[in-house]
Each structure stands twice: as C-alpha cells, then as structure tokens.
Structure prediction request, 687 residues.
Amino acid sequence: MEKQNVVVEVEDLYKIYKVGTNKVRALNGVSFQVYEGEFCAIVGTSGSGKSTLLNMLAGLEHPTKGQIAIRGQHIETMNEKQLVTFRREHVGFIFQSFNLMGTMTTIENVALPLTFRGMPKKERLKRAERMVKLVGLEKHKKHKPNQMSGGQQQRVGMARALVLNPDIVFADEPTGNLDSVTSAEMMNLMRNVVNKHHKTLVMVTHDNQLASYADRIIHIKDGKILRIEDNKDKRKEASAVSEED
Amino acid sequence: MRFSDIIAMSAGNLWKRKVRTILTVLGVMIGTASIVVMLSLGIGLKSAMLGEIQSQGSMTDIQVYNYNIYGSGDAKQMTDETMEEFLAIEHVKSATPLLTTWITMEQGKWRTDQQLIGAPQEYLQQIPLAEGSSYPATGTNKLELLVGNGVICDFYNPSNYEYPYYDNGELADVDFINRTVFTKFESVYTTDAEGNYIEQPSRRNIFPVVGMVEGGVEDYNTYCWNVYTDLDALKKYLQDTYRGKAIPGQPTDRNGNPYRYFCYENAIVSVDDMENVEAVQAAISEMGFEATSEMEWIQSAQQEMLIVEAVLGGIGAISLFVAAIGIANTMMMSIYERTKEIGVMKVLGCSLGNIRTMFLTEAAFIGFIGGIIGLIISYVLSFVCNLVLPDLVGYGDAKISLIPVWLVLLAILFSTLIGMLAGFFPAQRATKLSPLAAIRNE
Prediction:
C-alpha cells in the first residue's frame, strides 16, 4: 500500500458528560486516522458516540481529553473564534436535515460559505455555479429550497460543503431524511466526488448498508472503536460482480 | 463578510418577517414622531417668544441708569468720560448717552409735562418715523423736536386737571406739526443766604416739531412716550441759555453752581452678541451704575421654556423607550426562532463578529426606518399644529411648531442608535448560541 497523507489524526479522544452526579463516557479513548482522498464511514448505533465524535472532528464540541489534528493543526486547543475561522477555511459540512437558507436560491445557498469569506459577489456566484453543475442541479439553480425534493436539497447541501474546496468534508447522516432510492443516488454522488475530485470525506451513519459505500469503515460502540474495516477490496469485488450482471 | 452582504442579509431577514417588522417599526415611528413633534413645539414656542421680544427692542442693548445724579458732591456721575470707560469694556460696540430733562409743552388750553431726551444722531436715526417727518438736525442753534406717537395722550387742562384721553377716551385738540407748540424747560431752584428756595422760571420757547414717531396713539414702542432732540444741539442750547446758572435737569455743586460738564441719567450700551450681555452688564454694575437689559427676563423666560421643552421631550422619550423595548423583544424572538439558522451559519464558518453585526444591523434598520417614517409623520403633524394652534394660543401667524434641520438629523441618528442599543443584547446572545443547534433534528 502506497504512503498516504494523513488528513485527520485522532489520538486517545475522550468525551465525558456529566448528567446529574453520573459521568457518561460518550467517547472512551478513540484513536484513528483519515487519509487524503479517502471516503471514511463511522458506523454505530444511536448512543454509540459516533455523532459526538463527528462534532468534535468538526470543532463543534470540545473534547474532555485527547488530541485532534486536521492537516497538522490541533483543533482541541482552539477557542470558538479560531474554530469558526478554521471551519471557514478548511471544513465542509453536510447536514442530515439539509439546513438550507429558506430565503435563498440554490446558487445563493451554495455561495453562502464564500460570502462568509468576504469574496466578491461575482466570483462567488461563478464558483457556486460550477459546484451546482457538479452535483447536477443546473436546472434548479434559481429555485428556493421549498421548490425542490429532499434529494435535490441535499445535493445543494453537498455543493455548499464543497464550494470552499475544503481539506475535509464531514457528513452527518446525510441520507437520514431521504428514501432508499434517493439515498443510493446520494451515496453514489458522494463516491463520485471522492473518486473524481480526490476529496476526503468522513460520514457518520447507523446504517451498515450505506457504510459499505465507504473505503474504510470505523465501527464504534459505547464510545470505543470495535474494529476498523478496510472496505476497498470488497467494494472492488462488489462492483466487479455488479458489472457481470 | 462584506458589509454590503451583511446589509442584504439583514434586509432579507426583516422582509421575511414583514408583519413583525412593520409592527416594530410602527412603535419606533410613533416614538420618533412624538419626540420630534413635542420638541418642535418647544422650539417653535421659544422662537415665537424671542421674536416677540425682538420686536420690542434690541436684545443686545443694556440700559444704564444713574439714579444718583442729584446726589451729594462725591456721587459718581455719568459723563462723556464714563462713555469712554464703557467703550473700553470688552464686547461693547457703542455707548450712547441720553441727556434727559423735563419740559412742559403747551398748545391752546392743553398742557403736558414730558421728558426731553437729547440723543446722538446715530440713536435718532434708528427711530422709525411717521410719514412726512424728518429727524432733528444737529449743529444748529435751534432745537428741533421729534415727538413720540403716544405723547398726545398725556395732555391735560391745567385749569381743572382733566385728561381728555384717560378720562373720556378723547384726544386733546393738539397738532404738533401744523400749529405752534410752546415749550418750557422746568424751573430751576436755588437757595438764598437764608436757605430759602428761589424759583427761577424758564422762558417759553417755540421749538419746531419736525417729526413724529411712527405708529398710532395706542401702538406701543420704545420711543412712544418721549420727546427727542439732538444731543449736541441740546447741550449747546442749555449752555448758552443758562450761562453761569444752574441748568434744568443737571446737578449743581455745593454752592449751587453748575458743573462744567453734563451728567447723564441714562445711557445705552450696545453689546456685540447676546451671549456677552450678561458679562458687560456685570462690569457696568461694578462701576456703580444701575444696568438692566432684556437678557434678564429673556433668561428667566428661556429657563421656563427649557422646562417646557424638557417635559414635552420627556413625554416623547417615554414612547421611544417603549419602542426600544419593542425592538429588543422582536430581536430576541427572532434570535430564538433562528437558533438553528445561526448554528448553521456558525458551522459554515460565519464569524461571531459578523453574526453580531448582522443582528445589530437588523435592529438599526428598524430604528432607522421607524425614524424616517416618524419624521414624515412629524412634518404632517407639525403642519397641522401650525394651522390650528396659533389661533388658539394667540401668537398670531407665528409658527408654533418648528422642525429645524438639526432636529431631523438628530431624530434619525437617535432612533437608529436606540435600535442598535436595543439590539445589542440580543445580538450578543446570538453569538453565544451553540453551533450544535444546527445538528439537532427536530
């Protein structure tokens, strides 16, 4: 296996919540890496700590103990202000419930993170348009979110996450609000982006079937990693089989 | 984020919640309008009052009196030298001495006792004249008289002391211009060796009346009750007529001899600006003279107006304060409603400062728009006030409600500022919301 660049490095991560007098260990010593150009899935049942893990990777929550480095930058030591700046420059995020701005059109929604960067309107719309094309929504670029289906909305969400040209994209149950057919379409789109555009993507899901689209699957339970499964070879076999059909 | 983007987003958010925005703006509008209208009433009343005062005499003039003119030998006298001293005081533009003496005027059976005032030409020239009149000339031997428009009311019949005007409302049959008026200076009294007063009656003269002060019998002005003549002519006349003797209206030394100079009972000191009147007045008082000016009662009137203005403004301020609470409430609700949206913006990398600015801008917008509409309403109300109120209050056609430019600018600035102030706490709150709100699914 060729030497790969590490994008995310997690070491001995703990998150302990205090509920009344009880201490709940949401994460109990987690260590792993995510490599560049990789589609990585974190799988676990609800309450396993997978969402907490993702929140901490994206810098939305502070860990109790441990280290998180994204491209060598330690985000566990950053304050709120630095984290926002960090996300603006390096991180894309896809939400389960899309979270598009209801007053904005597709293209404006996609351009929003660039607005936060202070990019001139002309340039950010040009970049947004390219992303809209990438996710196949040219026909809907003037539409508002409530004029589109869930699948289309999530594509907008994806374009928005990619428009920053981020080092890493986090996806939180991206198909959680979609039916199975649309989910499959979405997963294929994500696969495509990772393969063709060499993006790094970390997805959280509870669904093993969806996780099978990933290159690597991190199984998590009770705040600990059960096993890390390399799915690359299996996927190749699977696609070979499906081609034979 | 660019400021233009922040403005666009804030405006968009306000537009999305139209009804709520309009209701909040309504509050600010009423608040601004009530402050502006109330203040405009205060300002209008004040300027109407000042206008009234100005029409009655100059506000920068100080009347100086020396009531001690006949006092003992050491008494301080007001002379031409004193005028020079007045001129030396800072901010004094001119010092005009008025030489006063009493005269008796007679025509037919009618008689009146009047104060004759000898004034310099520059003083005489400012007196408004009735048609066909001219000013008393200077540099002549003959005294020419200018008669106040109310003097005719003072004539009486010496045989029975009947005042036709005051008793019956009829004017005495006196014509200053076309018929001869006999004028007499008041008698001079001296004491003889035994200490008895000896009256030395003055001669009857015919001094031509060359002019009348403008105005009807009842029209009050500063000059209506006096008779005027040229100062130098009066001095020369008195000196020539009473050579070596006591001069009527002038003090004498212990031996009953006149001084070599004239003593004035009254002088007018003009000051360059209203603001300096008080200081000059104090300086003159310091010199031992009585000094009065319109400033004293203008000041007390202004103080009263200030209280009226403060009360009126206070009433307006209360409604704007209520409006500010309205803005704060609206912004607070809006922030709770948009918790998720704010979270998403944070996840997508919108800086905390930008989020704060965005909400402050929204609040400022509400204040600004409310201020502008409030001003428009104020102009309408002010117009109506000016249409209806002057007749009721009795200020004639003076404007009772005035909205000066500074008030317009101040109102807009103030309402915007109030908006921002009301929005500050909610905006601060928005920056503290957790980005995790974006992740939660409801």
User: Anything to note?
Assistant: Residues 180-197 of chain A form the longest helix (18 residues).
